[in-house]
Amino acid sequence: SNEVADDKIPCRIGYWGGTCEAPIYIAKEKGYFEECGIDPELFVITSDTASLMSKGELDCYELTPDQFMPIKNGAEVKIIDSLHTGCIQGAASKESGIKSVADLEGKKVAINNQGEITQILVSSEMVKLGKDPKKVEWVNYPNAEKQLALEKGEIDAFVAYDPFAEVAANDGYVKFFPNTFDKGLNEVLCCFIGLNTKNMEENPELAGRLSKAFKKACDYLEENPEEAAELIMDKEYIAGDAAVNAKLIKDYTWIAGDKDLLYSSAKEIWHQVYRAGALDEEVAEDDLDDWIDK
Question: Any idea what the Cα angle at residue 20 is, between residues 19 and 24, rounded to 5°?
């Protein structure tokens, strides 16, 4: 690994501060980026990724499936690998009577933004059960305010990236949606490595080096969830409690470098987008797989 030491590719890596972005924190703290020939600069993303990328301020980040449509429509980002399965959960108040996604019609449910993956995922699951996601009143709340909104009775439920619903469940709220374990979702990758296409073209070796570094981080997370959680908490990358985050890190399956799973997951995600009614073009259901392959 020493021969690349002098020839590191600089890479600006953004993150939001979710538990599931652990591979970014671990690859940085364990030195895997440097080991794989990358000079990493980490920062917290506070604005739109598309504009950050076009300004050249963001090279790499953990990409969620709500980015599939922008990618199809020409966004300057490519998926180079996967990171893990399941990191989105939902919490509801006891009074709401919500036990599963089947109970959400007529309820007020908080998400971050309309059209994001949390909404797509829950809508898709509702449709599978013969329910109508359009009958849900979706409202926007930042993650940090969702549980407070539940406490005040402003909403019936919320859906969010971990650790927010996990924390709420520990505080006595009802966990009605864990995609880490829900049958049919626990085999689907939910987060990917996105790389700015401009940087990819300028540095053809960067994608391979990032994949390698993230694979090392994923292996470390699979083998040492507790140590990983402690390290991440010590460096204050994420909020919450070390025990909660360690449990979540254990719950996920961390996978990089599995091309078949990447393909089958991407396919299933397009089906979720389709079921949720979020696809921006007319495609007949029977033609969907052919359309995806294109």
Answer: 95
Q: Which residue has the tokens 């109508």?
A: 132
* Arithmetic mean of pLDDT over the chain: 87
pLDDT of residue 1: 45
pLDDT tens digit sequence for 89-99: 899 999 999 99
pLDDT of residue 94: 94
What integer pLDDT is reported at residue 20 of this predicted model? 83
Give pLDDT, residue 141: 94
How far apart are the C-alpha atoms of 36 and 214, rounded to whole Å? 10
Specify the residue for token string 């300004």.
55
pLDDT digits over 129-180, tens only? 899 999 999 999 998 899 999 999 999 999 998 888 888 998 999 999 875 5
Query: How far apart are alpha carbons 184 and 264 in whole angstroms?
Result: 12
Residue whose pair of structure tokens reads 């600069």 in the numeric block: 41
